[in-house]
Amino acid sequence: MSQAPARAAGGPAHGAIKNRTLPAWPVASILAFYPIWWALGLGVLIFALMAVPMLFLLIRRRAAGRPLRLPPGFAWWAIFLIAVVVSLGALGADPVGTVAGHATGRLPAAGYKALMYAALTVLLVYAGNLTEDELPRRRLVKLLGWLFVVTVLGGLLGMVAGTFEFTSPVEWLLPSGVRNKGFVQSLVHPYAAQIMDIVGEGQPRPAAPWGYTNTWGNNFCLLAGWLVVAAWQSRSGKAKFWAVVCLVVSVVPAVVSLNRGLWIGAGVLVLYVAVRYVLAGKLWIIGAVAIAAALLGVALVATPLGTVVGARLDNGKSNGVRSFLIDRAIDGFQGSPIVGYGGTRNTVGGRNSITVGESAGCERCGNFTVGGNGQLWQLLFAHGAVGTAGYLGFFAYGLWRFRRDRSAIGVAGSAAIVTSFSAMLWYNSLVTPLAFMVLAFALLWRNSIEGETT
């Protein structure tokens, strides 16, 4: 008779412990199987889908009596999220020089961005609350390093099969009137590269599996450091060897992508890491960077890669458009400096004349997207000073808070955030670049909790 009460008491206790545990699979499955999500047509949508079980599990654990931690500086991020929601009230406004429209027509795109910001907030809190038993930091680093390998493979695919594309299962399920829309196509239609005429007609620029060439370049810089950390932490010489091979091979698609933002970002990444190591007294990094720079210089001189770089630097076709859009974003910010306009807008005509616009014969003429040429400009235009301060304040506070973390994870995580700061001048962050930024923040945060910062 004494055994029954023991089982009764043990059952709830066991259940309570189980409810307080956060499983790793919502985060791990996003990263480990991202190529599959991309092929299925889920791609960036997987972040919103996985946010549902993550939110449920966080609420369940809180209800079981285990408190949830919020990341340091979360008040800044909360200010940003509030600004995103409040700014939706300005969707009906038509800034000077933009195409007139209605709030209802702009709501789907703005709502999508707001939803993704919310989903990545859940990812940040969930990843930061995972313990070493639930998802070791070393495993999370390996998953991010794996995605750099995926990025390189996607770049090679874009080089050798630039026209490769296919209809995804999700795309098949959508009504034709929906799946043929450009915005929907960018979400559910997998393709290897974007075909552009920057240095020649029909030049493929790697995009897989990130949807856009610029996103591919942004993620390249955000993920490269994690491959190095994963190899550094590995006891296997074989793993280190293949990591070096991957880094060497990655130079080819990085150059062929014609992505100047990537080239600048890679330079910022290397410079930041070198400075951090020099300040820590590890002067050997100077020799390592010098050797790498020399080998890169030889490769550019001795192979056709140098010709590609030269051709790209001689063809700055996008410079005028970027300057035009920056001016329009600043003008728009001055018109609504506090809350912005809730989303992007299309310009009336092009940069040379208001009569130059998009047409069936010239889909890339005019009607450029204000806020589509860099996260900073989108923040200022869409969410005003309040939203911009909240967004930048959160990541800047993280850099300051974790500035003394000299561990491999600490340097790589802060380097990713620093690189993203330079990239926001020409790249937009939603969805995957921002996901990798918040995961870098989560790793820094967990490092500080575990006390492993040296």
UniProtKB/TrEMBL annotation:
Keyword Transcription regulation in annotation: no
Keyword field contains GTP-binding: no
Transmembrane segments: 36-58, 70-91, 111-131, 143-164, 216-232, 239-256, 262-279, 284-305, 376-400, 407-427, 433-449
Organism superkingdom: Bacteria
Keywords: Membrane, Transmembrane, Transmembrane helix
Protein name in UniProt: Uncharacterized protein
